[in-house]
Amino acid sequence: MAEAIAKSGAELKQKLSRDDVLMRGLIAVVGLYLLVTLVLPLYAMLSKSFKDHDGNFIGLANYIEYFSTPALSASIVNSLFIASITTFITLTLAFGLAYGLMRSNMPFKAFFKIVAMVPILVPSLLPGIALVYLFGRQGFMNWALFGHDIYGPIGIVIAEVFFTLPHALIILTTAFSISDARLYEAAQVLNASKFKIFWTVTLPGARYGVISAAFVVFTLAITDFGAPKVIGGDFNVLATDIYKQVIGQQNFEMGAVVSVVLLIPAALAFFVDRIVQKKQVALLTSRAVAYEPKPNKLFDHCMLAYAILFSVFILGMIAVCQYAALVKFYPYNLSLSLKNYNFDLMDGGGWAAYWNSLKMAGLTAVIGTCIIFVGAYVVEKVRGFTQGRMLFQFLAMLPMAVPGLVLGLAYIFFFNSPANPLNTLYHTMAILVISTITHFYTVSHLTATTALKQMDSEFEDVSASLKQPVFKMFRQVTVPVSMPAILDISIYLFVNAMTTVSAVVFLYGPDTNLASVAVLNMDDAGDIAPAAAMGMMIFYTAAGVKLLHYFSTLGLYKSTQRWRSKS
Amino acid sequence: MSINKASHYLVIENLTKRFGEFVALQDINLNINESEFVCFLGPSGCGKTTLLRAIAGLDLQSSGNIFQAGKDISVLPPSGRDFGIVFQSYALFPNLTVAKNVSYGLENAKIPKDQINKRVNELLEMVGLPEKANAYPANLSGGQQQRIALARALATSPSLLLLDEPLSALDAKVRVFLRHEIKQLQRKLGVTTIMVTHDQEEALTMADRIVVMKQGVIEQIGSPNEIYQQPKSVFVADFIGTMNFFEAQVMADNQIKIGELQFEHDSNIDTVVGERVTAAVRPEEFVISQQVESSEHKIEATIREIEFLGSLVRLRLSSKQMQAKSFIMNIEERMFRANALDEGDTISLSVITSPRLYPHD
Amino acid sequence: MKTLKSIVSCLAIIAFSLANAQTELTVYTAVEAEDLKKYADRFNEDHPDIKINWVRDSTGIVTAKLLAEKENPQADVIWGLAATSLLLMKGEGMLEAYSPNGVDALDPKFVDKSDPPTWTGMDAWVAAICVNTVEQEKYGFATPTSWQDLTKPEYKDHVAMPNPSSSGTGFLDVSSWLQIFGEEDGWKFMDGLHENIHHYTHSGSKPCKQAARGEVPIGVSFAFRGAKSKAEGAPIEIIIPEEGIGWDMEATAIVKGTDNLEAAKTLVDWSISEKANKMYNEGYAVIGIQSLAKPVEHFPENIPEKMIDNDFEWAAANRKAILAEWQSRYDSKSEPKS
């Protein structure tokens, strides 16, 4: 044994085939991409937070200033407050709907599922705009607040709940779908009451889902910038502080400090969530029997009523925005017109911004899907190279822990430095595409990895034994078989590129205004109706692309049915 | 045994594979002749698949060398080695037709298309599925898929065929049928073949030689007959077929005592008089004593349980004389009926061969 | 052969169009979005060979962008940014000193004191209060006529104003109050005002636009915005407080290090021409060559006499300290209101 250990110093090294060299090379290339578009900018930002305005190292002085200025550090408490309340409300609401969808026999489930996904298709600024029309001074429903003010925590929380609901719902329905029916049967045999079953079976079964959803919602709410920007009034949160420090006061160093402060809870939540998700995966592999809800009239009706209320909330917000966009001069002239679509007469870049957004989203979807899928493929299928793979996996997970606003600011520091030869990218379409790909890298990477893991790991071995190049295998088998996942990734990237504000708000240039940023800037200038109109343009575009995706996936399954299913 | 690299098709020298602290293969030495059908047999975790993957270059050994046809292939990548491989999962490309799967390794700028088609038809004919050329794998049964996988592996005429538990995922009947098919095909083509299996019956029926492995080391190499008749260790004796073990004591150079009974033995293990050893007797080596009148060692045994296996009947016995609470013997159904045996009967037995001896643990 | 020919002709076309290409100027501006096309079109009437690529954003953002890009300037010219912001950039050494043709015709207030000047003014942009008359009736408060009026309890939660940290207008308001009332009384005034503020906005035009929609009854903003909203039919009245009003100039400058210095000079020359001044006068009552000024619809007539003697240098020099003080007083009080 001692001899064996002594020998281990001289492990054999396999000669690399051309494919090995190619795959390792690709891992290095994609890894380098992540290094340059993520790690180096973050480093630039971190180091900026330790420097003064002239670039001299001043240690923790900026941080000391931050924490000794109550106007600034108060935002930490505000942010935690908003994120916690949002998490609680979103989870409660989403849990109810997920419960109804998975545990009742209510009708129209498919419709409610689609409605619940609508908030994903709009920028997070839009619910804020809807709230102004609903509960502002001139709002149709401002009596409902009993004299409270929508500008501030109430408005932020409602908007964040709207914005985070679909994310929580996806996780919770997944959690419910893996609960084991046999436990319910056992509980019923033991004559447990419905209430008791809920507490002893339902809740514990979904616990990892609940925890995971809580972290996801918390992270989204604490890092979101759109809702507090529009409806936050004078209620400062970390995300708006970064924007104010950088845009309002040109205090980049303090912006970097706030970014670091925001990075901490976001990164923490992310890492805890990763651990929890691993446990959920362990649950998934156990041999569970799917639960089939039994009809129960009263319960089903209650759940239906709840789902209707839920849909009214979501569709109501969207409908209000569309109405606002069409009204000539709310509230004094309620006649309808398209005047608010005259974007060229307003801030934000006009219709060009919309076309830019389409272009940016298209490029992000195409280029991003290529980079991410190829990256996931080579790292999943390369032989050996363990350390390189681990490093790559870490890099691929990192973007999820970085809030968009922080990423955008980091890009300013990194890409606009005169010493950086890449600084010609600043303000170009390229940097918008790059930042968006990197911002949404992790989820896409995980989607690709999951799809690739489902494929037989021995395909590559067979291909190598037949002396065929790996890219032939990739082209002829991997890509066609993974097509549904590839489409999913490209749609995810497209929709997010259309709606994102946070990273790109620091990066767009004269010729590269974006629709989502236009919504922000128009609202900022007080042109709220045109902002709503542009927001709705984004919604229709995203929804249209989703529909297209739905039908193309349907067509894909039809055309590949011959090999997908047994005849 | 001296290793002559030139005279063997595949030579494995001092091969060791570690995963961290865990030693999966320890100092493996093995020679395989051209056209031979060799089975790696052992329980799960014994290292048989690891050894196969090392030969293929899919998992590199930690140390040691592999020579194929006189060429050192120890550190070559899989694509640099000459072999075809079939996995338990078939690993057929789901979106390609059967013909496309089979021609996958042939598609090469240098081979004209009609020649590829000819070869594909030939291969499909060979595995008995010529009518399935345009079907997709999902439309085939497991056995059919595995035959297509075999055709694909053989398409490029590799001189070494590696089979990694190819039959384990199949139904019992298909498995028996395919055993035969594969063996015939291998004979016909004369391709050197290594098959990994945990199924001893499979190994016994198919292999020219069996390599029995346990915890990363080779326990025994030999023909199916050798392995069955002269297992070198208790492990092999137990793993291959069914074996009864008895505690025994060495009385003289060729004498042992099991319980109160004395037996002769011709085992060539070194023993010391008085030493405790393990004696092993196969169930079919017991006979009811009137069959062999001359036998000196009559064993009195009581039938505890009767189990019908079709043409054979398995009796679970106990014997005070042998101090054995439970051992089994097989008896032809015809004999069983002739003797009108029933549970609780006492019968007298004799042993037709001398027991195998193993050192006592 | 045919393909070769077409390639050659293609290349020829490209080369030709490159040789004749317009000079393109990247111009950073905070001029109201709806005016940009007009400005560029009028300029191109005289100089069709220079193409303007606008980068338009609010004062705070354009200022931030320019400072952020200090090491790697993207802009050639700044046309229409607050003079206080340009002073900041002058302090950073980012502006090219240039005395444009016809600079003598400008009101001396509208020219940088350095010689040659680094910036020249276009028009003045003055503070004003927008009051929604429909809402006023609903709440039944008196029309405020002075800044001090706004601290009265009857206006509680009825006032919106821009945050000076992010808005040029907001800073203009705060710095003018400190000059009108003196430092101590100025802060005292703002303490009182803060009690009545419903919210602070990021943009200077937003309070007036919100007042126009009745989202708040009273918006502290600037006269130009009020006039525009009134022209669109909003039920608002534009009030010029009697203590006097802060103002800032929209001004023009060349960014140091531009690759297109000649074209930039052409643009700056044009930006102070009579034609340009008349164009500014279509929206602004106070312009660089005041003798050309005609009254503007919806603009209160008494603006010029109410404009305080604004000390831009002082405001720019004390900007950081003023904002820090403002933040510590009012930003930290932004607690949940519910």
Quick structural summary:
With 361 residues, chain B is α+β, with helices and mostly antiparallel strands. Chain B is 24% helix and 34% strand.
Q: What's the topology here?
A:
The complex is a heterotrimer of chains A (567), B (361) and C (338).
Chain A: H1 2-7, H2 18-48, H3 61-68, H4 70-103, H5 109-117, H6 125-135, H7 153-177, H8 181-189, H9 194-205, H10 207-223, H11 226-231, H12 238-248, H13 252-285, H14 297-326, E1 327-329, E2 333-336, H15 350-381, H16 386-397, H17 404-415, H18 429-439, H19 441-453, H20 459-465, H21 470-481, H22 483-499, H23 515-524, H24 528-559, H25 561-564
Helix pairs in contact in A: 2-15, 2-16, 2-17, 4-7, 4-10, 4-14, 6-7, 6-14, 6-24, 7-10, 10-13, 12-13, 13-17, 14-24, 15-18, 15-19, 15-22, 15-23, 19-22, 22-24, 23-24
Chain B: E1 10-19, E2 22-32, E3 37-41, H1 48-56, E4 63-68, E5 71-72, E6 84-87, H2 98-103, H3 113-126, H4 142-154, E7 160-164, H5 172-189, E8 192-197, H6 200-206, E9 209-214, E10 217-222, H7 224-229, H8 234-239, E11 244-252, E12 255-258, E13 261-264, E14 276-281, E15 286-288, E16 299-308, E17 312-319, E18 324-332, H9 333-339, E19 346-351, E20 356-359
Parallel strand pairs in B: 3-8, 3-9, 6-7, 7-8
Antiparallel strand pairs in B: 1-2, 1-4, 4-5, 9-10, 11-12, 11-14, 12-13, 14-20, 15-19, 16-17, 16-19, 17-18
Helix pairs in contact in B: 3-4
Chain C: H1 2-19, E1 23-29, H2 36-46, E2 50-56, H3 59-68, E3 77-82, H4 83-91, E4 95-96, E5 119-132, H5 133-139, E6 159-162, H6 168-181, H7 183-196, E7 197-201, H8 206-213, E8 218-222, H9 223-231, E9 236-239, E10 247-255, H10 261-271, H11 274-281, H12 303-306, H13 312-331
Parallel strand pairs in C: 1-2, 1-3, 6-7, 6-8
Antiparallel strand pairs in C: 3-10, 4-10, 5-8, 5-9, 5-10
Helix pairs in contact in C: 4-13, 6-7, 6-13
Please explain how this structure is put together.
The complex is a heterotrimer of chains A (567), B (361) and C (338). Helix content of chain A is 71%, strand content 1%. Chain A is built from 25 helices and two strands. A two-stranded antiparallel ribbon of chain A has the order 1-2. In chain A, strand 1 and strand 2 form a beta hairpin. Chain B is α+β, with helices and mostly antiparallel strands. Helix content of chain B is 24%, strand content 34%. Chain B is globular, with a radius of gyration of 25 Å. The two termini of chain B are 28 Å apart. With 338 residues, chain C is of the alpha/beta class. Chain C folds into two domains: 148 residues, Periplasmic binding protein-like II (D-Maltodextrin-Binding Protein, domain 2, 3-Layer(aba) Sandwich), CATH 3.40.190; 142 residues, D-Maltodextrin-Binding Protein, domain 2, CATH 3.40.190. Helix content of chain C is 42%, strand content 19%. Chain C is built from 13 helices and ten strands. In chain C, strands 1, 2, 3, 4, 5, 6, 7, 8, 9 and 10 form a ten-stranded mixed beta sheet that branches. In chain C, helix 2 links the parallel strand 1 and strand 2. Chain C is globular. The termini of chain C are far apart. In chain C, 52% of the residues are buried. The C terminus of chain C is likely disordered. Chains in contact: A-B, A-C. At the A-C interface, helix 4 and helix 12 of A face strand 2, helix 3, strand 7, helix 8 and helix 13 of C.
